[in-house]
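Query structure, 179 tokens:
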């Protein structure tokens, strides 16, 4: 008697096929609703990270120029796989070998430097997609002021870092503020 009850309880415990299918359908519907919002959130986080890294890179080049009392440069570029940045002393020339030897670091995946909205000085040799900003020992920009603008694929969001005064003041902006 006891044995039959145990066997019966074992067969009646758990979920039925209908219950499992209903739960899977509900989870699928909720995933379909949440996925676009999550992708938008993820793109926003990536572009915010790139903006923050660019701001820190420019600030580092500026403070290093003041500390070392020499001209320092922040360089930015797009490659086939990633957007990159480097902080370094002003190179002795504009050759491919010199720029490839720089300590390049990658921005967040999925972000690109907008070539149409970025107004930093473009370096046409060795690569037309390299932008630079030089800072004098006083911390002021060596040349024109400008901005670097980031975009992500699949989104029309833009975020930028702007050198807004000849004294080297940095600020951030987004969307229409980057035009």
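Result returned for the query:
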């Amino acid at each position: 008697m006891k044995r039959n009850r145990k066997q019966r309880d074992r067969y009646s415990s758990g979920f039925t096929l209908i219950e499992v299918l209903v739960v899977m359908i509900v989870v699928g519907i909720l995933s379909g609703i949440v996925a676009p919002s999550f992708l938008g959130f993820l793109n926003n986080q990536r572009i915010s990270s790139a903006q923050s890294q660019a701001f820190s890179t420019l600030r580092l080049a500026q403070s290093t120029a003041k500390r070392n009392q020499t001209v320092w440069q922040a360089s930015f570029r797009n490659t086939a796989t990633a957007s990159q940045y480097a902080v370094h002393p002003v190179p002795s020339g504009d050759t491919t070998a010199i720029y490839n030897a720089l300590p390049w670091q990658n921005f967040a995946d999925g972000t690109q430097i907008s070539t149409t909205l970025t107004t930093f000085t473009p370096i046409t040799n060795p690569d037309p997609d390299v932008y630079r900003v030089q800072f004098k020992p006083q911390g002021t920009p060596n040349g024109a002021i400008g901005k670097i603008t980031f975009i992500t694929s699949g989104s029309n969001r833009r975020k930028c870092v702007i050198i807004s005064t000849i004294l080297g003041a940095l600020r951030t902006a987004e969307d229409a503020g980057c035009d």
